[in-house]
Write a structure and sequence with these properties.
- By secondary structure, the chain is mainly alpha-helical.
- It has two domains: 45 residues, no CATH class; 35 residues.
- The relative contact order is 0.12.
- The model has no long low-confidence stretch (mean pLDDT 94).
Length: 81
């Protein structure tokens, strides 16, 4: 898994068929990336908060709120400085 994709993600990319495993923790309802956040990251690399919001169907502002809260938690638990 050197590329970060799961075997099912590779199959979806190769066959160009959207994933329908809605119970998968990597599932996103975004058919441009075959409904897989791993494929989304693999094909697009770093993304802006707007691009992430588009994929998750939430606003840029909400993505920013989530990011801020996550960074605060990471700093509190000393995962980042």
């Amino acid at each position: 898994m050197k590329d970060g994709l799961l075997s099912c993600s590779r199959i979806c990319r190769a066959t160009k068929i959207n994933c329908n495993k809605v119970d998968c923790k990597f599932f996103i309802d975004y058919s441009d990336d075959y409904n897989c956040c791993l494929i989304s990251i693999y094909e697009n690399g770093f993304m802006t908060l707007r691009q992430i919001g588009e994929r998750l169907k939430i606003s840029f502002a909400r993505v920013k709120q989530i990011e801020t809260k996550a960074l605060k938690k990471m700093k509190k638990s000393k995962l980042i400085s």
